[in-house]
Amino acid sequence: MKIPGLSFESKERAIVAGILKEYSIVHESVLDFQKLTRASSSRDQAAVAGLVQKVLDSEQASADFRRSLSTEIAEGAFFGGVREDMLDLLGRLHDVADCAKGAARFIGSDAALDGFALALIASDSATEFFADVVGTVEALGSLLEAFELGRKEMMGRIPKVEEMERAADASKDEVTRALFAQAERPDPVTVIQMRDFLFTTDGMADRAQDASDVVLILVAKGYG
Amino acid sequence: MADTLIVSGLALSFVFGWNNSSFLIGNMRGSGVLSLKGAVAATVVGMLLGVLAEGPKMLKSLDGSLALSVPSSGLLLTLVLSAALMLALTVAKLPASLSSAMVGAFLGVALGVGASVRLPQVELVVSFWFVAPVLAGVVAYLLHKGMSRVVPRLSIVASDTFNRLGVVAGSLLVAYSLGANNLGLITGTSAAGEGGAGLALLSAAMTGVALLGVVALGKGNVAGTMGDKMLSLSPQGVLAVFSASALLVWVGTQLAVPMSISQCVLGGMIGAAVSQRTAVINARLAYETIGTWVVVPAVAFLVGYALAVA
Question: Between chains, do A79 and B153 touch, taking CB under 8 Å as contact?
Fold first, then answer.
């Protein structure tokens, strides 16, 4: 049976599956970024170059997939209002990959070859920070998987994203303090670039939390 | 006279469609669930089924029930006065009740022409108008409570599907009940003894003209007053309100009582709001709406009486 303008579950299911696919692309870019920080710490320049390219490719794949999925959503699916939130969610997911690209570009640049920068990226506090960022994005992934499980499960997973984002913030603050607490001050341009790098990296966790806020709105609208 | 009655009935149907556009297609369009074509198609199906299957139960709701032997000129005056009143209220973007305008005008005209008014039936109609919104509130409350237990267990896609199908189902129920009760009332008052295929054809014509009012002029301003400005409800709340209101209008149809969907919707909204807890009610607007329910039949009665006597 087909009623003009009314789609039943198949289209919506395909879109939710698409959002999970978009997440998997974004997740891959974030994991590659984490590998990139390790390769940078071990000064493996060949691996660094390869991983930077992988992060850039993932971001491009995320942008392309987001565009096609957005078109599909805009053509008519979901309840009014929910449709816009789905588009918003896709945008936030892509923003995570965009931040991964920005941060990867720094590691791939000459500025990251500075001894001070290399040491900071390899530090324990930075390693913890990168892990917290990945943890936040993975908490978002777990939340998106709960789309199948109902309101209670989704509401239960939203705080985890926030908790991980706060942990990422705290560890970023620690790395930032280390950045400014060096006895021998590095080149100011390097300090500024490193600071931007840390904030861009933290942007992955922030955008993941933004995405979880959109999910909260979806829950409120969809379940009443 | 028969032709004039039909033309007046068609004019009233047009204003009725215009005034009720938000109840009929507003939700389906506003929620983006159906295209305009789809929403109109669903409304056609609902209204036609209603007016053809149960509209005949309203044939004698005015003449033959509330009063006996009102002349055709009295019925014509009832239709014209109701159409004028509905038109004025619709232009003023106020939620008007077709049934209360028609009943008020008819009783005024009936008294004016010296027809025999049946007080027990008048009492039944008026008391049902007071009871129906309360019952709609109770039914909407129970329905919303039930839905709020089931829907949270669904996946996000399933809950979205439930909401979308709920909008269509709720609108179909409203279209059916309005077709049976209100269009049945207009058709019955205009029919002048028409029956069989002629009556079915007239019912279909009334439905067509009402839809013309819905599509050509209805932009949701009137019933939008009820839905958008008075209260914010979740999609499940809207489904509960629409289902409860349609049920009460249907019960009214079984008793041949002309019903106002807006009265039931207001009662239902309050019931769903109590269940939802977080809803915000615009009390001033609610009082204004209740005020029009009293003022409209009273004005229709007085003007109808004055015109009939004159």
Answer: no
Indicate whether A186 pLDDT > 80: no
- Interchain contact A147–B (C-beta under 8 A): yes
Q: Is the Cβ of A199 closer than 8 Å to some Cβ of chain B?
A: no
In chain B, residues with a C-beta closer than 8 Å to the C-beta of A76 are 32
Number of structural domains in chain A = 1
Rounded to two decimals, the pTM is 0.80
CA–CA separation, B42 and A38 (whole Å):
60
* Side chain identity at residue A65, one-letter code: F
ipTM of the complex: 0.76
Higher confidence at residue A2 or residue A147? A147
Three-class DSSP category at B20:
coil
In a domain, A215, yes or no: yes
Q: Is residue A2 part of a domain?
A: no
Q: Is residue A199 part of a domain?
A: yes
Q: CA angle A140-A214-B154, nearest 5°?
A: 80
Contact assignment for B38 to A76 by CB distance below 8 Å: no
What are residue B68's DSSP bridge partners? B116
Inter-residue contact A3 to B38 (CB < 8 Å): yes
Domain limits for position A73: 10-220
Choose among A212, A85, A114: nearest CA to A160.
A212
Q: Look-up: residue for tokens 């990422």? A: A168
Distance CA B125, CA B54 (A): 18
pLDDT along chain B (310 residues), means of 10: 85 88 75 79 91 91 88 92 90 81 94 92 92 95 91 88 87 93 92 74 91 76 48 80 94 93 87 74 72 87 92
Rounded to the nearest 10°, the torsion over CA B75, B81, B82, B85 is 180
Q: What is the dihedral angle through the alpha carbons of A30, A34, A37, A38, rounded to the nearest 10 degrees?
A: -160
pLDDT digits (tens, 9 = 90+) for A87-100: 999 999 999 999 99
The enclosing domain of A138 has a CATH number of 1.20.58.220
Q: Is residue A51 part of a domain?
A: yes
Residue B18 to residue A223: CA distance in whole angstroms: 32
Minimal Cβ distance to B33: which of A79, A151, A154: A79
